[in-house]
Amino acid sequence: MIPYSSFSFFMILGILLIPVVVLGYKEKRSIVYNSFVHVVILLLAFASDIHQLVSFIVYIFWQVILVHWYAFYRKEKNEAGVFYAVVFLALVPLLVTKLLPVWSMGNIVGFLGISYLTFKTVQMIIDMRDGALKTVTVKEQLMFLLFSPTISSGPIDRFKRFQKDMETIPTREEYRLLLYKGINKIFLGFLYKFIIAYVINDRVIETPFIQAHTPLSTFIYMYAYSLYLFFDFAGYSAFAIGASYIMGVKTPENFHLPFLSKNMKDFWNRWHMSLSFWFRDYVYMRFVFWMMKKKWIQNRYTVSYIGYFLLFFLMGVWHGLELHYVAYGLYHAALMISYDYFERKNKQWKIWKKNKGTEVLSVIITFHVICFGFLIFSGRLF
Amino acid sequence: MKKIKTFFQLPYVCWTVKMSYYLLILLGLLMIYGFKMTNSSAFIYNEF
After folding, report:
1. Which residue, of A8, A176, A241, A257, has the fewest CB within 10 Å?
2. What's the mean pLDDT when you consider all of chain A?
3. B39: phi then psi, degrees, rounded to nearest 5
4. Minimum-distance CB partner of A7 among B22, B37, B44
5. What is the pTM of this model?
6. pLDDT at residue A340 greater than cutoff 70
7. Which spans of this chain does the record mark as coiled coil (chain A) (predicted)?
8. Is the pLDDT reported for residue A247 higher than 80?
9. Cβ contact (<8 Å) for B48 and A233?
10. Contacts of A2 in chain B (CB under 8 A)
11. Of residues A256, A272, A319, A332, which has the active-site annotation?
12. Which pLDDT score is estimated for A146?
């Protein structure tokens, strides 16, 4: 049973959360009961496929061993080679999962949510390397990795932020607000996923006219698919964030009105935020810092553009090794670099002045450019 | 404008609006899916 994909899942989740709500109102939290909730949800997600269940258990053991070995090593030493080797080993299960379909082999390693667990683990290893994370217990790591509301597709939380929530028990008034926000989010998820996304898919995308692959149908499909993708994923995110709130954890947002973005930088601060911030912090920033330190390239703009290229190429490849995902990543890299160049030059040339009219025009242009990106992403073009 | 804002900030108005919003969503779900415990399609991002 895929989390949040059926009404029966919501019924089970609702029943499981009753004691959590009662304890929340009493300003209490039971780690034992919360762990029971997580185990039940994880069993619901993985038990129907024994391969997935076994892969999931082996994967968790693998990541716990890696993180704890590195934490132990990091107390004494800080070799770059060892750090890169540990990051690579943490990425191996995900890499194998992405590569097996390319080699036309059955995916026996992968399981639902492997990417998101990998992002969480790599984040912990990098934070240890930076000295931002000194110690972590097995219990803390398991609580972070196995937090069931976000297990299947994020949002990708940060260990320190999550840890802070786990250490703080909300007051009665704070919990009342969290519960209220959580229920609101879950209803928003129903509206997005089960009503709007369903109607767009059923009444537009799946119609014979749109499936006919004419230039006009592809043009309409571009906008319909963009909206469908947003309402599907924002719906999932609302469910995950809502359930997290009810469990007293303020999981970060994934979306903030992305179709009202004024430019590409603004878009990536509003779309799949937890992923784009992860790539910004752990790929782009680290790459730029590393290149500046090595001084191989003097021009900081060139370094930044190579960083953007790397970030979006990896983000594209992460979706899959199919050509349309790689093209989607490169398309966004080209857009981001072009926008950054234009923004810099516009400060001298002043051809795009800031006023209400240009702001509205910017939103309209950005919306169409984004939708074309989603058309590439959909795989309909190639 | 200020009067309308104040009106919508009244606790019983807020409660009624919120309840109507929830009920409309439930009604929408009922219209599309009925009482069947349907298994909807998975989410697009579950694939990644």
Report:
1. A257
2. 95
3. -100, 100
4. B37
5. 0.95
6. yes
7. none
8. yes
9. no
10. 42-43, 46
11. A319
12. 96
